Amino acid sequence: MDKRDIEKNVNIMLERYGYSQEHDNYIDIVDFVRKLGFSVGSAELEDNDDGFLIVQPNGVDGLNDRIIGVNSKRSYEFKRFIIAHEFAHFILHYKGGSAYLHRENKKGKNEEENEADYYAANLIMPKNSFLREYNNLKNSGLENNAIGVQLASIYKVPLESALRRISEVIDIQAPKAHFGY
């Protein structure tokens, strides 16, 4: 799925959820994925593992057949991104009909991981909402670093994620961060 298709898909899902890009900013990602049939929880994982997605078609009575787990050692903001990222793998890469397991770790990113990152960013920092908030902060006189900090706070994401999203949504060079999403 290319970036434009990802944006369209996310916008449709958010609209169905009741999210308004003209008025809303923060999205409760746990509530969002739970309403789509996922169980979400923290797990004690190795330090280099961020999270996982398990899909078991035809689970017992349909319960717990879609599970997203996040490393309990991660920050609240990073957990939000991990949940959105694992959900993105379900939408983008799960083909249906068979069991599916995806494990996220901090090792290098391939095209599939970058695609899931972009989907996740669109989901928890929707483009039009993000642009609206960015412009409000810019018009208040804040500079890029301060804007990044404020956007990270508004959307409850890691600062690195907010800075990267600025560079995707705004046609400027955002300050560099040492991590991707």
TrEMBL record:
Protein name (Swiss-Prot/TrEMBL): ImmA/IrrE family metallo-endopeptidase
One of the Pfam families matching this protein, by short name: Peptidase_M78
Protein's organism: Candidatus Limousia pullorum
Domain IrrE N-terminal-like: residue ranges: 58-167
Superkingdom of the organism of origin: Bacteria
InterPro entries: IrrE_HExxH (IPR010359), Rad_response_metalloprotease (IPR052345)
